[in-house]
Amino acid sequence: MSEQSGERPALRYKAAELGVAAIFLLLGAIVIFDSVRIGARWGADGPQTGYFPFYLGVIICAASALNVFRALRIREADNKTFVEIGQLKLVLSVLIPSAVYVTLIGWLGIYVSSVIYVGFFMRWLGKYPWWKLVAVSVGNSVFFFLIFEVWFKIPLPKGPVEALLGLD
């Protein structure tokens, strides 16, 4: 969608640039702080543990400061729409359930969480009937359980349901 689409902008370029630059500036500051905490000097036997991460943090902060400076120079005429409300809603309609899925893995394990996640999207976006939803979402988790746990012997996070079934 373009500026002529008539939809309201959710975020403009200047705000997006400033926001991302601020996040990376914070990230760089955390790297610098932690590098100094663990030692960022050149010792008698060579560089300390935080020596190279310290300089990476400095580079990240410098690049972020440059991006803040450049973003502040964006003129209002050049401050076009970065994302419109409708586009942002589409992104969030996938991002929020994905974040919930990742959170549920810690409590329910990856297999039960995957059944819920796949089933949710099949029903909500695909409007599939319940029998297909159950067959595909449960089949998917069983398939990956067999591949990872049985054949490759790679344990993945499990929850209370697997414990009840004796699969933990």
Topology:
Elements: E1 9-12, H1 13-38, E2 42-43, E3 46-47, H2 51-72, E4 81-84, H3 85-124, H4 130-151, H5 160-164
Antiparallel strand pairs: 1-4, 2-3
Properties at a glance:
168 residues; mainly alpha; two-stranded antiparallel sheet; 4 strands; 68% helix
Explain this structure.
The structure is a single chain. With 168 residues, the chain is mainly alpha-helical. 68% of the residues lie in helices and 7% in strands. The protein contains 5 helices and 4 strands. The strands form 2 sheets. A two-stranded antiparallel ribbon has the order 1-4. The chain has a two-stranded antiparallel sheet with strand order 2-3. Strand 2 and strand 3 form a beta hairpin. It is flat. The N and C termini lie far apart (49 Å). The relative contact order is 0.11.
Mean pLDDT, as a whole number?
94
Nearest-angstrom radius of gyration? 24 Å
Report the uncertain regions.
none
Give the overall shape.
flat
Helix segment tally: 5
Q: Summarize the main sheet.
A: 2 strands, antiparallel
Q: SSE order, as H and E?
A: EHEEHEHHH
Distance between the termini: 49 Å
Classify the secondary structure makeup into a structural class. Answer: mainly alpha
Strand content: 5-15%
Strand order of the largest sheet: 1-4
Total number of β-strand segments? 4
Give the % helix: 55-70%
